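Lab notes, practical 5.
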Amino acid sequence: MKFELNSLPRNCSDEEVLAEILRVDSLVGKEKLIRADFDRYAKISSSGVCRKFKKSWKEVLRLAGIEHKYSGKSVTGKMKKQDGKRLADQEILDEMKRVASMLKSSILTTQEFNENSIIISSFIVRTRFGSWKDALEKAGLKASSHAKDKFSEEECFENLLNIWTHYGRPPYYLEMRKLPSNISPNVYARRWGSWRKALEAFVNKMSQDDDEPKKQKILPTPDKTTEKEIRQDIKKHSVLSEDRYEIKLGLRYKVLDRDKFKCVRCGASPATDHSCCLHVDHKVPFSKGGRTILNNLQTLCEKCNLGKGNRYSE
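Output from the prediction step:
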């Protein structure tokens, strides 16, 4: 099973995009089609649609024949500036804390703040406190040397795998701002250049990890003079992924997909129970000679996995 991106191709036609707008509108089923709802379910972002047609969201909905679904003007930067002038210093700091809490991060950039605050812009914050850094300090938040350095690539992919597993499909940008994700989508966009590029990098990583392990033939080097040194050299260079306890991300996904993202013992699934946490574990314990291969791995919920302990699967 290979990961596939659930999105429209880059060279999609105008008709395909308009059809996607109508599909999402039918799926959402609300009186108005706002951009946040569209971004949650669509195979292309609302900003991507506006760029493609070089029109506003209202004009895009008119092209699709659903102009009556337009919810009205969004809050502009000018409107935010006017509102910000009436706020006290503490109210501004509280808004910064609210946005940081929503993003589940103690690091807050001006871009993140502008995208998520509906009452004030970073311009007013800088004007009021002298600089963005000074405002962050007063709010008890941190400036970023760059937020992408906060999480390693492995941590980003691990989190993305968890969310992909949670929904059983590629997650949307806005879904990464909600639990169980613990990394903001902005981190992915900054690290890889865009959210789509982050998904593409993840897919490539999964494909690499999903490759079958190949045994490497190690020949003793001429300078190894004793049998003991030769054995140590072979052992050091011939450890396969199947002989390690660690389960690579690609193999984990393969197990989860095979088991239909459900606990093989009790049938629990994150799709129906958001408190459910799935583990991929060895059937024959690694400590008792079990190998890290597909046939010796299974999906268990946290409760069943902890109850299993180090016993063989029944």
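Observations recorded by the TA: The first strand starts at residue 278 and ends at 282. The chain has 15 helices and two strands.
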